[in-house]
Amino acid sequence: MLENARFQSFPQPVVMQITADVAGLPVVKPGTEQTSGLGAAILAATGLGWYADLPSAVKGMTRSGESFAPQTDTGRLYDEIYRRVYLHMYSRLHPLYQAVQQITGYPAFRKG
């Protein structure tokens, strides 16, 4: 079972909080914005034998940044909006999506 969610990039704090509320999990920012470079360094350090394995390298070379705890009441609100509104939205908008596609040719649907 998931204990938290971690982002590779740095979205705005409001996006982090909404994600925590919707998922019902703490969301944690990484301690660096350079996550791709850090991942490469972790692989290199492991390959060079500086760490016994990847989990050890990750533990030794990473740190967590700001954490966003889920707000239960807000999460329930998002869930209700999803169930009562968004689940029904696509079927009602589908004919309009088809009209836009017929007028513009976009998106071009592929068969098979």
TrEMBL record:
Keyword Nucleotide-binding attributed: no
EC numbers: 2.7.1.-
GO terms for biological process, alphabetical: carbohydrate metabolic process
GO molecular function: kinase activity
Entry annotated with the keyword Nucleotide-binding: no
Record's keyword terms, sorted: Kinase, Transferase
Main enzyme class: transferase
Occurrences of domain Carbohydrate kinase FGGY C-terminal (ranges): 13-46
Superkingdom, natural source: Bacteria
Entry's family note: Belongs to the FGGY kinase family.
PANTHER family membership: SUGAR KINASE, XYLULOSE KINASE
The protein's name: Carbohydrate kinase, FGGY, C-terminal
Classification of source organism: Bacteria, Bacillati, Bacillota, Clostridia, Eubacteriales
